[in-house]
Design brief:
9 helices, alpha/beta, two-stranded antiparallel ribbon, single chain, eight-stranded mixed β-sheet
Length: 321
C-alpha cells in the first residue's frame, strides 16, 4: 500500500518537472529573445548592387567619420566620408582574407570617372562604394556593414578596454593620440584615437589600416562567447554598444553579423590572410585629385582572383604590410 507519502512524491516530481521545463524555456528564450531584440536595434540601408554572385561570401566593412554620432569632435566637416574600407572574403575552400583598401586608392568610380575610392562614398554613399569595389575587385559584395566612430569607442569600453601595440612615440594633433612606444591597455577614447591616427604614421593610410585591424582583432579577442552566456548583462551592454552606430545592408541580420565576426577572427588567425592589394605607388599624382595610392595594374587582377578562389597562401600580403 502506497500510503499518503506517494501523492506527495508525485506532486514533488511534477513540480520538479515544471521547474526543469521552465529553466529550459528560459535558457532557450533568452538567446532567442536576445537575437530578436538585437536584430531590431540594427539600422539598415540599401547598399547591395544586385550583381550576380561570385563564389564564397564577401563582406564590405567601412568606418564612417561622420561628426553626427559624437565619436569625432565636430570641426565643421559636413556629411560622411569613409576613413576605413575593409574587404573580407570567405572562399568555399582556402584561407579567409581581410584586405584593407586605402581610402586614397585610385579607381574608376561608376558614373564619375577615375578618382579616390573614398570619393565614391562621398558621391553616392554605400551603393556607389559597393559598385566601385565590385568593379575593380571582381567580387560581388554579399553584405555591407558601416560603423560610426562612436561605435568603436563604445564597443571597446563595453569589453573593458583592449591591449594595443605601436612601436613609436606619438603626439598627433589631428587624432589627439598621445602614445609611448610599446603595448598598453587602451580605453575606448584612446582606441579610437589609435585607429584614426594617420599623419604621424610614416606609413600613412597603410599604417592606419594595420592599426584599425589591430583594434578590431583585440575586441574580438576579448569577447568570450562561453563567458557571455553566463553574464546576460554583459551581452546586453555589448550588443547595445555594437549596434548603436552600426548600419548594415538591407538583407543582413544578426546571424550574418555573427558569421562576419567569425570570418574576421579567422582572417586574423595563423591560417588567414591580412594586408592590402599589391601597391605600385603610394604617392601617385594623376592630376586633379592630389596624391593617390596606385594599385599594381599587372598583379591586382590576379591577386583578387586568388582571394576569390582561396588559392592565395595564408600570411600578410601586399603594400607595406
Amino acid at each position: 500500500m502506497a500510503g499518503p507519502a506517494a501523492p506527495r512524491r508525485r506532486r514533488r516530481l511534477r513540480w520538479t518537472l515544471v521547474v526543469v521545463a521552465l529553466v529550459l524555456v528560459l535558457m532557450l528564450a533568452w538567446p532567442i529573445g536576445l537575437v530578436m531584440w538585437a536584430d531590431g536595434k540594427i539600422q539598415r540601408t540599401e547598399a547591395l548592387s544586385g550583381a550576380p554572385g561570385t563564389v564564397g561570401t564577401t563582406y564590405l566593412l567601412t568606418g564612417s567619420d561622420s561628426r553626427k554620432d559624437g565619436g569625432v569632435k565636430d570641426d565643421g566637416t559636413t556629411g560622411e566620408r569613409s576613413d576605413t574600407i575593409l574587404l573580407l572574403h570567405v572562399p568555399e575552400s582556402g584561407p579567409t582574407a581581410l584586405i584593407s583598401l586605402p581610402r586614397d586608392t585610385y579607381v574608376e568610380i561608376p558614373g564619375h570617372g577615375p578618382g579616390k575610392i573614398n570619393a565614391a562614398f562621398a558621391y553616392g554613399g554605400a551603393p556607389l562604394l559597393v559598385k566601385t569595389v565590385e568593379k575593380f575587385t571582381g567580387l560581388t559584395v554579399d553584405h555591407y556593414a558601416q560603423i560610426g566612430m562612436a561605435g568603436v569607442k563604445d564597443v571597446v569600453d563595453a569589453v573593458g578596454g583592449v591591449r594595443l601595440c605601436y612601436d613609436d612615440d606619438v603626439n598627433d594633433r589631428d587624432s589627439h593620440l598621445k602614445w609611448k612606444a610599446g603595448c598598453h591597455v587602451a580605453d575606448g577614447t584612446v582606441a579610437l584615437q589609435f585607429a584614426r591616427m594617420r599623419k604621424a604614421d610614416p606609413q600613412g593610410d597603410i599604417g592606419r589600416a594595420k592599426r584599425q585591424r589591430q583594434v578590431v582583432g583585440a575586441v574580438l579577442g576579448k569577447v568570450d562567447p562561453k563567458s557571455l552566456v553566463l553574464h546576460p548583462s554583459q551581452q546586453v551592454s555589448l550588443i547595445t554598444a555594437a549596434t548603436g552606430s552600426l548600419t548594415v545592408d538591407e538583407s543582413a541580420g544578426v546571424l550574418d553579423l555573427g558569421r562576419l565576426a567569425l570570418a574576421f577572427k579567422a582572417a586574423n588567425g595563423k591560417d588567414g590572410i591580412t594586408g592590402t592589394p599589391p601597391i605600385a605607388d603610394l604617392d601617385y599624382r594623376p592630376g586633379g585629385v592630389g596624391s593617390t595610392v596606385l594599385l599594381d595594374p599587372e598583379e591586382t587582377p590576379t591577386f583578387f582572383r586568388q582571394i576569390r578562389d582561396g588559392t592565395l597562401p595564408p600570411g600578410k600580403v601586399g603594400g607595406l604590410d
